[in-house]
Write a structure and sequence with these properties.
The complex is a heterodimer of chains A (about 775) and B (about 290). Chain A is mainly beta. Chain A is about 5% helix and about 60% strand. The longest helix of chain A has 17 residues. Chain A starts with a helix and ends with a strand. Chain B is built from 2 helices and 20 strands. In chain B, the strands form 3 sheets. An 8-stranded mixed sheet of chain B has the order 7-8-3-2-20-19-14-17, covered by helices on one side. In chain B, strands 5, 6, 9, 10 and 11 form a 5-stranded antiparallel sheet that branches. In chain B, strands 12, 13, 15, 16 and 18 form a 5-stranded antiparallel sheet that branches. Chain B starts with a helix and ends with a strand. Classes of the chains: A mainly beta (about 775), B mainly beta (about 290). At the A-B interface, helix 5, strand 41, strand 42, strand 43 and strand 46 of A face helix 1, strand 1, strand 2, strand 3 and strand 4 of B. Strand 41 of chain A pairs antiparallel with strand 4 of chain B, so a sheet runs across the interface.
Amino acid sequence: MKQFSRGTIAVAVLILFTIQMQAARHTISGSVVDNASGETLIGATIFDKLSGKGTITNAYGYFSLPLNADSVNLYISFVGYETQIHCFRLKKDTTLNIKLNGNINLQAVVIKAEREHDLKGAQMSAVEIGSDDVKSTPTMFGEADVIKTVQLMPGVQSGSEGTTGMYVRGGGPDENLYLLDGIPIYNVDHAFGFFSAFNPDAIKDITLYKGSFPAHFGSRLSSVLDIYTNNGNDQSYHGSANIGLISAKINFEGPIVKEKTTFNVSARRTYLDIFTRPVIKYILESDIDAGYWFYDINAKITHKFSDRSRLFASYYMGNDVISIGFDEGQYANMDMDYVWGNIVGSLRWNYMINSKLFMNLTGAYTRYKNDVIFTFNTTAAQAENLEFQYRSGIQDLSARIDFDYVPADNHSVKFGGTYTYHIFTPDVIVVKTNEIDTNTTDDKTRAHEITVYGEDTWNISRWLRANLGLNYSVFNVDGKTYQSLQPRASLRFLANDNLSFKLGYAYMTQYVHLLSNSNISLPSDLWVPSTGKVAPMNSNQVAGGMFYKLENIAEFSAEGYFKYMNNLIEYRDGASYMFSEEKWDDLVALGDGWSYGIEFMAKRNIGKVTGWIAYTWSETERLFDREGQELNRGIAFPAKYDRRHDISIVVSYKPNRKIDFSATWVFSTGNAMTLGMQRYQGIEPDNLGILNSITYIESRNNYRMPNYHRMDVSVNFNRTLKHGERTLNISIYNVYNHKNPYMLYTSGNRLMQLSIFQIIPSVSYAYKF
Amino acid sequence: MKKTAHNLNLFIIITLTLFASCKTEVEFDGDMTAQLPVMNAVVCDGDTALSVSLTKSKFFLNRHSFETIDDATVVLSCNGAQFSLSHSGKGTYTLVRDFCHGDRVSISAQIPSFSTALGTGTLEIPRKPEITAAEIIYNNDSSKYIHLRFLNPADEENFFQIRIYKNGNASGMYLYCYDECTINMNSNYASNNYGSRIMFPDTKLSDTCDVNLYFIEFGDDDDGLKTETDSYTVVLESLNSDLYRYCRNIANASSDGGGGSSFTEPVQVHSNIKNGLGIFGTKAVCKTTVTG
């Protein structure tokens, strides 16, 4: 039945693609950029007031708008910029390269959220977030964080305190696709999840999709976080430096060849290790040399061959390092290095083939690795050296081509395809001694994934707009081939200029899984492919919503959703991949899950006081009842992050340019956890004696941790100096020092709570020129 | 400069103290679950008596020791015949009787303080496995292992557990099987290592099974050299499926107390007692001793 309904939708979409579309006489095409920096503007609106037709710039700042040969009254606008009006008579295909001027007064008070995906766009369940939003949210240790800001949106839940993992509409942390300039990035954590891998200084635009996914996205069930980085200023050199309690970062951008070639480089490093090394030595009174740090680098070079052709080369590298050395003097020394991180590199070529057809060609490499290297050396005459390595990771090589085609003024078509070559290294153990150098395990798994897609945004009438698409993917691993046809659809009905209703459906398939323990997420969690034993995950999601704009006051939205997921994986009872000799796919069970909920958001974008209130009511359950794979005795149980209530309140107050305040308050129902409430005597398996005592677990996730809530506040003191601006930021995390639960455990006959973050004041200093 | 460094270190220490994680005892905020009756018994091929233990479970925050049940009526059903067990104190009920392979047994218990009776399904006592060869092998690299050959009864589904004792030390914890236990050279079975013992089903075994038992000896100066005075006892047990599942669960749960640690999933220990908790199992045991 499911196959039939998907097939029906597929046929309907194909028919729509072949509909005879009315050809426009001429097309206005071009790009929209920031006048001061030359930075392309994503999602800028180009609207002809006379015909009522309009479009927006794509992810690379290009647009194409077919119109009848007639007078046009073109409004080009973007949030935070002065609107430009171009009036002329359209006699032929016309190229317009627009340079918008930033509106300084407006910028000071506007939060750029949901610019396009709000009232009038066909897309639902999407949120756009500007880098300013990220920077204006109160910070921990003075570090603004992209994912922590995203977690304040409705439908998005944070994991345990201090982690950056996202749980979107009942999905797991591996069901989110993080795209950095269109390239997947597998691990988004620094410092065990205390910070995310994205440096806000390098970021231009962030869009989160929670459902109703456009067909050009795929490969994850629950969300897409689409992040674009700055290209770099093509006029003059600019930069910023920021120093905080535990980290420092710099950003530098400018032209290599003015208005042709630009660069943008950002780097960040923590330096807590520099201070803690001597402290640890002092406290432990030993020669233990231990430290932790992370760093990341973003670099991007953009070359403009012409107004129609651009080349981008971008690179990201980030690593976390734990280094511990034990020096036993003349006898031996021992070192342990634990390194994990990402490398992402891409080369992209944008080319506007003609006024209606835009092409984006991308080649990319992304890698996540997790290495533990343990070395032991004796310093005696007969030196013995032992090296133990535990390595895991994933590498992708991919080629992608995308086309934007505007055949008529009421159709905007996207189509393209991707080929990805995956190399999975779930776990490799290497032991080296003086005599031996061996890989005891080396089971790299190679997989091929091909995706093609097509979608059309169809303005059926002024009131009705639809986005219909198909995504087809094939995954081949170890001789096993899976395929999936995934229809996507969303529909918007505009009741009036201030009220719209939307509906959406998305079928998604995911071929990669993250093996993580339900209690804690670690960098050593393994990325693994679907195999003969572990089928790909699928989800069906329907969503509906209402969007209302109260002119000059606030915007309101309400969305409801239902999502059903198949082939979810969970570890079996007692399983852990750490130190396990079993293959990972023998440790997991496959099951189903479902989630439903309602999300409300009220957002104010204008005025001195801005911010939003987000509330989510949801319920998420798992069912593992397949024969031989039963969990919880085959009975449905709440997912770990099943939370009934989630509230986020974000307020920002900017009375003038010298000072601004912001505060957030979050509340959520406590996480579900497993608590064995009865204990009993059993039999000792060895000698049949009495075994004291066995914990009786009635059901998985049968207990709720205490509710979570905290308030963060932040104040920025801004000052214009001779050559730039400086900002002094003072933030307090968890200002009323609430002891939130990180985990509960039993100690003897007591129930104990571990809280990791109490009140954390921080200060940072930034200089921008 | 020195003063600055001193102040900086002081600041770091104070900051770390401020940020340090905090443990607090919290109130249990939920419904207190009721006590459940617990029955444990294992019937072994060749046993001349049966002992059944009856206790009550307790709430996890309860500091008291487990209560025994001393007023129950316990009945064994063996091959269709009913036998009442006699109370021998501290929640223990016994019956003197010879048990052998093929006996079909079940137990029921009526407990006045619980409204529903405890019961079990009917289990069959498994056939005793037969060890046909055992020898200790010394390697050139100072390691040694025991090669064991035994017959796997082909007409029934069997679940095995192997333990090793050294010099009659019956604690079972003195030695443990190292991670290279191979059965018919199928390394997948190495995953069934549980420290002091290995457990595995016979689903992939042929009628004649060869097992290499690698082990490390703790608490002794084991240099791998041949020592003729040392003797190793290999205990091979055939368990019924319920007891096998129970033993595996117990082994999985032992590292975290059953509630799941940060790194392992919680374990729901298998029980086949209707209206209660515990385990009723059957098994058959054979032993052999090899000397260095």
